[in-house]
Amino acid sequence: MTRLLKNPIAVIGLAIILCYIVMAIISQFWLPFDPLQMEVSRILEAPSVVTGHVFGTDEFGRDVLSRIMKGAGISIVIAISATAIGSCIGTLMGVWAGFLGGAWDHWIMRGMDILFSFPSLLLAIFIMAVLGEKTYNVIVAISIVYIPQFARVSRGAVLAIKGSEFIRAAFSSGADRRYVLSRHIMPNIMMPIIVQCSLSLSVAILLESALSFLGLGVQPPQPSWGNMLSSARKVMLLAPWTAIYPGFAIMGIVLGFNLLGDGLRDILDPRLRNLK
Amino acid sequence: MGRYIVQRVLSLIPVLLGVSIIVFFLVRLIPGSALQMYLGTQVEATPEQMEELRRIFGEDRPIPILYFEWLGRLLQGDFGYSLRTGRKVLPDILQRLPLSFELTLYALTLSLLIGIPLGILAAIKLNPVLDVLIRISGLFGLSLPQFWLASLMVIAFSGFQGWIPMGNYVGFLDAPFQNLRMLFFPALAIGVGLSAVIMRYTRNSMLEVIQMDYIRTARAKGLSKRVVLIRHALRNAILPVITVVGFNTGYLLGGAIVIEEVFALPGMGRLALYAIYQRDYSLIQGIVLVIATLFVLVNLITDLIYAVIDPRIRLATGEN
Fold first, then answer.
1. Rounded-to-integer distance, Cα A63 and Cα A45, Å
2. Using only C-alpha atoms, what is the Rg of chain B?
3. Chain A contacts in chain B segment 1-30 (CB below 8 A)
4. How far is the C-alpha of B119 from the C-alpha of B227, rounded, in Å?
5. The domain B93-319 is classified under which CATH number: 1.10.3720.10, 1.20.1250.20, 2.60.40.2550, 3.30.420.10?
6. Which residues between 166 and 205 in chain B have a beta carbon less than 8 angstroms from any beta carbon of chain A?
7. What are the C-alpha distances in Å from A51 to residues A35, A57, A235, B175?
8. Which partner from A14, A62, A164, B183 sits 20 to 30 angstroms from B128, CA to CA?
């Protein structure tokens, strides 16, 4: 943790993410305007401090800033839940495959190869088409995309330490499999998985916004950054602010997760540290 | 080498079978049968009539049998009929394929042209400020949502005649120059993310290679810095980059789906979205199969290129 705070890249990333989380929490209690309130007289107003619509209004006269703030909560919840589910299932399968080896390893990893043969966005789109366009289905779709990725990372990590002295020592001093798994293997493979989580969170935000942009994710009138950009397409030549600010919102948080991921990787990979 | 190719091609068979199983069963998970979709919401059939129809269409038999029949038809190139238009699915998909393929290839070329030189430039540290600048822009490139970048391009360049395709797409064979100009921004929007990835890998991999002893030896025997960098360092440093590029081509294919929508390009991505909005499941099934197969083939090609460049790989499998 102290090493994390000494790494400037990770700290900037963490700070950006915290800002978004604070914004998402505030949006639950207070917003400058009602994000769903349409106002015909205020359609496509340019950003202005005087009217209070600092990011302007959209094609229904709704306040863009309020919608971005409201959308933060939805995007963050989806990204965190999808990453949590995908990482748990994927890690479990990877550890299982790596630790037991043999036929288990073969079949689990062949299954993962099959999931890997779909480009991730295509797989997510396909799953959404099958399940139907509901917010919780976005979580399911993204977590399925993540299962093979986490399985690969965790299996690799298990294989790397499985043959080491201390594992053999634990077995020969009479520890059973469950003890070795929980006390020796799991703590030692957590680091690469945490790095993968951080990078997965950034991709989850991008996947969710892409799905919502295509009309397959969060459904209007509920605001999400992706569907805001989608509805902005019709008016963006007249009112560029409807397309510009939600995009910055996405880029900011994705940048935050990427910085954090990069920082974590630098800290955990001593080989990279020496290159600096 | 021949043996390695055969091994790799054979290993595709179980993967492609798995893909077909997933596609087949996922589509069956859809609430309401394809039959009801076909009848539409206007036609109300009683449960008995539905049962009869299912029997006529052969849908009442066990699912594994249905799967193998379907697979048999697939192998003969019969991907079934669209539930909406009644036309054969495969010709429609193949007609849309060249544009998506060209777009993906274009994006790949642009991202290599941007990513590799920038990565080398950052690694050799001619100028520390340049290194930092390149790395920061790499992080931004990685964090940009493609479809947003595409929207910004439309806003910024819609005034320039012929640069932004808006429903006036022309094929490469009809007017190559116009076509390439029109697809430049879409391809760039798709490729920016990958160019950032390539840049980061090239930089890290170059930094690692430059430290090796053989580079020092080459420099010590009097070769110029440029010759050592290109002939000795880059050749080894490029290996991990190739893997990353192959691995990310699927990301380009996925990106093409979204970007075609933004620029209204008549490619496979738009066809897929149309199929989803229309709930045309046999069309969706066909498109997903075609894209997944392409993706698997691209990964195969990547592995083969890798083996050509790095003799260690084909030798290792040859010995087994």
1. 9
2. 24
3. 14-16, 18-19, 22-23, 26-27, 29-30
4. 17
5. 1.10.3720.10
6. 204
7. 16, 10, 21, 50
8. A14
Q: What is the ipTM of this complex?
A: 0.84
Q: How far apart are CA B174 and CA A117, in angstroms?
A: 34
Question: Residues with Cβ < 8 Å from B17, sequence gap 6 or more?
Answer: none
pLDDT at B25: 85
Suggest the residue from A16, A125, A248 to mutate for an interface test with chain B (most B CBs closer than 10 A). A125
Residue A113 Cα, gap to closest chain B Cα (Å): 7
Instruction: With a cut of 70, say whether residue B37 has pLDDT above it.
Output: no
Q: How many CB atoms lie within 10 A of CB B56?
A: 10
Q: Which of B14, B211, B288 lies at the smallest CB-CB distance from A110?
A: B14
User: Among B100, B260, B246, B139, which Cα is nearest to B189's?
Assistant: B260
State phi, psi for B81 to the nearest 5 degrees.
Answer: -115, 145
Give the count of beta carbons closer than 10 Å to the beta carbon of residue B316: 12
> A1 versus B151: which is more confidently predicted?
B151
Most B CBs within 10 Å: which of A75, A117, A224, as the mutation test of the B interface? A117
Determine contact, residues A87/A195, Cβ cutoff 8 Å.
no
Question: CB neighbours of B59 closer than 8 A, spacing ≥ 6?
Answer: B33, B35, B66
Q: What's the whole-model pTM score?
A: 0.88
pLDDT at B43: 67
Q: How far is CA B318 from CA B4, B66, B306, B307, in A?
A: 7, 40, 15, 11
Q: In angstroms, how far apart are the furthest CA atoms of chain A?
A: 78
| Domain segments of chain B as ranges | 93-319
